[in-house]
Design a protein that fits this description.
Number of strands: 9
Number of helices: 9
Distance between the termini: 9 Å
Structural class: alpha+beta
Largest sheet: 7 strands, antiparallel
Radius of gyration: 20 Å
Order of helices and strands: EHEEEEHHHEEEHHEHHH
Length: 269
């Protein structure tokens, strides 16, 4: 079983345009189903026939949260996510592997298709990022240890997640960029800046969730309880800002090592 973690941006239902809000209100009332019919799939091509094709669900779905008496919605936007993930895949694996999975010519077609979608709808941006087998360390930059939650699921398992406002997440990203630049860590700076640029596409009243999702199933209760990744990353930034590079490196390596060990499962599978 492949476990995935998710970084989601949730928009308040009451802040959406009226026509969009009405659709998601019906979705919530019907328990997360707009139409009680079997799912319909369509084949989509990034370019000419015979090139890379995608099989995606036609209907739009969403993750929904009720927080503080307010409904929040994170639309899946599956076709958009699939296109974006193909480009991300090329950046995540060695070049020779990337070309075998998504050839450069197909990546260019995917990029053109994404550009076409965004020209037609400038707000078209994935509201969810997904990571298999591990949580990217940079995601923890957006959260504090106080925003961490462990909840029992209906099946008896447990789920670890973080929840914060978009404004706080962006403040932390901005602070991390300033601190990292001061520590001459330019390679890491660009990664955090990309994350902040993604968040900037959403309205200020939105919220951000880091959900361990299926990864929670790979850890026991004690491991989840002892996982303080966001707290340790914030402490590493504090140490770096104070000039204690040794302590900063120690804290960062504790988190990076924890998730490097989790990624070993990916190699084994």
């Amino acid at each position: 079983m492949v476990g995935s973690a998710y970084l989601r941006v949730f928009q308040p239902l009451d802040a959406l345009p009226e026509n969009e809000r009405a659709g998601w209100e019906r979705y919530i009332v019907h328990g997360g189903h707009l139409k009680p019919v079997r799912r319909v799939y369509r084949e989509r091509h990034t370019g000419h026939r015979g090139r890379l094709g995608l099989l995606t669900a036609e209907e739009d779905r969403a993750d929904v949260r009720l927080v503080g008496g307010r409904w929040y919605v994170c639309p899946w936007r599956t076709p958009l996510r699939v296109l974006a993930s193909l480009l991300a895949l090329r950046d995540m694996v060695p070049e020779e592997v990337a070309d075998a999975l998504v050839p450069e010519s197909e990546a260019r077609r995917v990029a053109r298709e994404l550009a076409r979608i965004r020209r037609r709808d400038p707000s078209a941006v994935p509201s969810m990022l997904e990571s298999h087998w591990h949580v990217p360390v940079r995601w923890f930059v957006l959260f504090s240890g106080k925003e961490r939650r462990i909840e029992e699921r209906a099946d008896g398992g447990f789920r670890l997640s973080y929840w914060t406002t978009l404004a706080r997440a962006r403040e932390r990203a901005g602070r991390a960029v300033r601190v990292l630049k001061g520590g001459d860590l330019d390679d890491v700076v660009s990664i955090v800046e990309d994350l902040d640029e993604w968040l900037s596409r959403f309205a200020r009243p939105s919220a951000v969730e880091l959900d361990y999702g299926g990864l929670s199933d790979h850890f026991g209760w004690n491991e989840l309880e002892e996982d303080r990744s966001a707290e340790e990353i914030q402490a590493a930034l504090d140490a770096l800002e104070a000039g204690d590079n040794e302590r900063a490196a120690e804290l960062y390596q504790a988190v990076a090592g924890r998730w490097a060990e989790a990624r070993i499962r990916e190699s084994l599978n």
